[in-house]
């Protein structure tokens, strides 16, 4: 599959449906903010600033967006509120483009990386194990041989849930008894994966934040042990965040980026919430690529994050004020 794979009609529909509540909320607020206005003046911009902040975009990112819009209004003489939606969409898309690497291929792995090792981190309840299961499904669907490692050994439910996903997707799960050393599980998983010619290895880890030093030490140990089997492992440290928690997702991202070197993010549970704006703020504030977004319970509802499609879906094509 090519690097820029075709964004199918089905994926577009899933994205639109998943972001519908956020879109309705944002559009409703913006419509009220510009009611009775024909020009983009200071009052409109002040109202727009409030809309973005209350839509979980975050203060710092909102101020960047407002500054960009102010510049566009001054330079391009866009004074009509009917143009505001287009300007807003363009500037947010540009901001996301500036703050991330290129959009990744559709569940592809880099050439020469076998196995490609992903260590997944995140607090309990954010959809971490579910995301792992869906990732395994997508990679397998793409012709890859996948192994899962149940290194969250502190919760029996975590191991059981990962095994359920492994059975559902049809991929092997390497596990040990409850309370086993997580690094030992990771070592066994990579050893088995290498011996059996696996293409992708995904390692689940414990989601505890009450002791940042302990978390840091544990994740560092897991990474060091994996390197004994695959010297470059892990290729990716994927932080899973619950988009429905809004600003709390910012705090989780802050804590985990302090505890370990996060290289990519997945934002889950965007369906059923009006807090989808958090994706924009997290992308901007942490300068870490958002790789995936979760838009529902189905196996196909984990999508590769594509910035332009995300912004178009969130802000629509119809334009505000028309």
Distance between the termini: 39 Å
- Net shape: elongated
Radius of gyration: 21 Å
Helix content: 40-55%
The major β-sheet equals: 8 strands, mixed
> With helices defined by DSSP (H or I, 4 residues minimum), what is the helix count?
12
Report strand order across the widest sheet: 3-2-4-1-5-6-7-8
Strand and helix order: HHHHHEHEHEHEHEHEHEEH
Mean pLDDT across the residues is 86
Structural class: alpha/beta
State the low-pLDDT regions, or none. Answer: 1-6
Number of strands: 8
How much of the residues is beta strand, in percent?
Answer: 5-15%
Can you put this structure into words, describing what you see?
The chain is α/β, with parallel strands linked by helices and about 325 residues long. It has helices spanning about 10-20, 20-35, 40-55, 60-75, 85-100, 130-140, 155-170, 180-195, 210-225, 245-260, 280-285, 305-315, and strands at about 115-120, 145-150, 175, 200-205, 235-240, 265-270, 290-295, 300-305. Helix 4 crosses helix 11 (about 280-285).
Secondary structure blueprint with pairings:
Elements: H1 9-18, H2 20-33, H3 42-54, H4 59-76, H5 84-99, E1 116-121, H6 128-141, E2 146-150, H7 156-169, E3 173-174, H8 182-195, E4 200-204, H9 212-227, E5 236-242, H10 247-259, E6 264-268, H11 278-286, E7 290-294, E8 302-304, H12 307-315
Parallel strand pairs: 1-4, 1-5, 2-3, 2-4, 5-6, 6-7
Antiparallel strand pairs: 7-8
Helix pairs in contact: 2-3, 3-4, 4-5, 4-11, 5-12, 6-7, 8-9, 9-10, 10-11
Task: Supply database-style keywords.
alpha/beta; 322 residues
């Amino acid at each position: 599959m090519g690097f820029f794979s075709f964004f199918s009609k089905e994926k577009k529909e899933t994205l639109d449906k998943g972001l519908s509540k956020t879109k309705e909320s944002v559009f409703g607020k913006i419509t009220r903010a510009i009611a009775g206005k024909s020009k983009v003046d200071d009052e409109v911009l002040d109202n727009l600033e409030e809309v973005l902040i209350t839509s979980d975009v975050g203060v710092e990112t909102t101020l960047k967006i407002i500054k960009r819009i102010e510049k566009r209004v001054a330079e391009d003489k866009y004074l009509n509120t009917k143009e505001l939606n287009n300007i807003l969409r363009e500037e947010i898309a540009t901001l996301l483009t500036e703050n991330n690497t290129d959009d990744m291929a559709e569940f592809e792995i880099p050439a020469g990386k076998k196995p490609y090792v992903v260590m997944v981190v995140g607090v309990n309840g954010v959809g971490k194990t579910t995301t792992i299961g869906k990732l395994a499904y997508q990679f397998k669907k793409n012709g890859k041989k996948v192994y899962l490692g149940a290194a969250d050994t502190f919760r029996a439910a975590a191991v059981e849930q990962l095994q359920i996903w492994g059975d559902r997707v049809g991929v092997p799960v390497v596990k040990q008894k409850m309370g086993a050393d997580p690094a030992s599980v990771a070592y066994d998983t990579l050893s088995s994966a290498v011996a059996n010619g696996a293409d992708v290895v995904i390692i689940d880890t414990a989601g505890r934040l009450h002791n940042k030093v302990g978390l840091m030490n544990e994740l560092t140990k897991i990474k060091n042990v994996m390197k004994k089997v695959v010297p470059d492992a892990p290729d990716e440290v994927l932080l899973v965040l619950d988009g429905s928690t809004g600003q709390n997702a910012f705090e989780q991202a802050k804590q985990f980026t302090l505890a370990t070197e996060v290289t990519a993010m997945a934002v889950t549970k965007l369906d059923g919430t009006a807090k989808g704006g958090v994706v924009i703020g997290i992308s901007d504030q942490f300068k870490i690529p958002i790789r995936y977004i979760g838009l529902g319970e189905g196996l196909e509802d984990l999508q590769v994050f594509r910035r332009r499609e995300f912004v178009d879906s969130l802000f629509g094509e119809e334009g505000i004020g028309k």
